[in-house]
Design goal:
seven-stranded mixed sheet, alpha/beta, elongated, four-stranded parallel sheet, 11 strands
Length: about 270
Amino acid sequence: MRSYSPDLTPPWKKKQTPAPEVAAEADLVVEEVSTGFCGAVVRCEKTAEGPTVTLEDRFGKHRVFPLAPRGFLLEGKVVTLVRPSAAAPARTARTASGSLAVPGARARVARAGRIYVEGRHDAELVEKVWGDDLRIEGVVVEYLEGIDDLPAIVAEFSPGPDARLGVLVDHLVPGSKESRIAASVTDADVLIVGHPYIDVWEAVKPSSVGIAGWPRVPRGEDWKTGVCRALGWPENTGAAWQHVLSKVRSYKDLDPSLLGSVEHLIDFVTAP
């Protein structure tokens, strides 16, 4: 006579034992169980649907997952990720730019050298990512209202070996108006670099903002307004920028073309 187990509950309906809870600290590498997506923790957020975690794989691709019980594998073992405590110390003490943080460091007296950027949004983005580094180095960032008068602005600044000037330019591509203006400044104590985008908004990775890509705006239309229309955002470019800026947590949210340019400028104006 066959013997049967008295427990006829299907396996998938049996109560699973709770998995160990692990704080989703930045840079923790885990695998999501249902998709097999493997990546490092970028951030945790509280949403209307519940808490989520954003992972970044080795190709820089971001995916957002709910913090579901038994939802991840850590070193091959099932775990439940939870939001890290606000009081928990960071695993790696780094600034938003990726530099090693210097706890308690005092801001250096401002250097004579400066970094100029085209507009307020550029300045706010540079401050958010490189602000800690700039204060330690004593570098002040100022914004211009465009670069049409750049040669005169440089002459008024009077750059020299002890007062170098760095300039970050939008849409610095061959044949552009910006490239022609930049080429007219030949002072050895001035460095002009830039990124290829029409506006610094585009230097923020679309995946960080939660969009598929930055839309193409017809020539002749205000770019920022056109972006808001194409994405279905209210046509309030100030509010739209604050939304974009809020999605930038570190250098990982920015395009490499901007990262390299800003790092180059900081090195230039702080060189002995």
